[in-house]
Amino acid sequence: MSIKGRVRSRMLTSRELVYKTLNFQNPYRAPRQLWVLPWAEIHYPEHLKKIKEDFPDDIIGAPGFYKEPVKVNGNPYEPGIYIDEWNCKFINVQRGIIGEVKEPIVQGENWEDDYKIRIPVEYLKIDKDRINEFCHNTDKFVLAGVTPNIFERLQYIRGTQQLLIDLVFRPHGMFRVIRKIHDFYCEVLSEWAKTDVDALTFMDDWGTQSSLLVNPKVWVEIFKPLYKDYIEIAHRHGKKIFMHSDGYILDIIPHLIELGLDAINSQIFCMGVEKLRQFRGKITFWGEIDRQYLLARGSVEEIEEAVKKVKENLWINGGCIAQCEFGIGAKPENVYKVFETWNKITA
How many helices (H) and strands (E) in the chain? Predict the structure, then answer.
């Protein structure tokens, strides 16, 4: 590229940079996004400020501009009880991270007590004018301010162990609830798709350390059609769509590519970065850098090598977003090194 061409490339807005990355159009650097848990804000406020100043995000989320307040009780990141918008009760013992559901609200054998589930209709009542104004006033790539998570929501409602049993025995009531939740999520995503955000998002943590939580055939039969609907809603409205899923999810990545998912945030080091090389150029890898060992206990030299490994295996004229999570246990110097290295090797 000529000097003039390089100067022109460096004048791209964050939004343009992300689109070039998603479309494999040779962006001049990897776009950035830092995920911050309240734990990091509590323990490392000055370090966090420095990271944000030196490496500002290219991707941001739109605020949830709702015409009616979402009905919750408590604070999900403070010790105590938090009741979310679906009526699920979380118990938290540590400040800065979210708690767990200990008492699922649907316990009937055929899910007959699903009347205890509260559908948060407030999510359908978004202020599109305020959302559009927010999008117009930034040159960042904007994600929708809502993230459907149907598998996780079913676990909160039913309990993980019992849900996995039900996915084997298939009680009719389970499918009734799945349809109710899914239809609601489709409505919510459709409303956000009518705004000026750049992308919709959804998530579900599907993996253990070494495999899916369910048989891949179960995922294909029950959940793949649901995700197909989410992805089609986005693309029908000219939006990109991103997904997050923790754990070893190698078995479902080809299906997500087939459905047209634009970007996946996953634990690529859990699966093995080299194993994912087969998918480069077919989907954008929205981070991450290993937070189980590297960010928490690795050296800055190991962090640099890890980022280089990601680029070598997954970058091809784009297709990688420089993303990592500043969460519990992460060393601030390692988080800083992630973005410093991405800048050095792609800029």
Answer: 16, 11
Looking at the domain assignment, is residue 128 inside a domain?
Answer: no
Which residue range forms the structural domain that includes residue 281?
1-60+267-347
107's tokens: 């316990």
Q: Is residue 31 part of a domain?
A: yes
Nearest-CA neighbor of 195 among 237, 146, 243? 237
Domain annotation covers residue 85:
no
HSE-up (13 A, CA, CB side) for residue 279: 27
In total, how many domains does the chain have?
1
pLDDT tens digits in sequence order for the chain, 347 residues long: 444 444 444 589 999 999 999 999 999 999 999 999 999 999 999 999 999 999 999 999 999 899 999 999 999 999 999 999 999 999 999 888 889 999 999 999 999 999 999 999 999 999 999 999 999 999 999 999 999 999 999 999 999 999 999 999 999 999 999 999 999 999 999 999 999 999 999 999 999 999 999 999 999 999 999 999 999 999 999 999 999 999 999 999 999 999 999 999 999 999 999 999 999 999 999 999 999 999 999 999 999 999 999 999 999 999 999 999 999 999 999 999 999 999 999 87
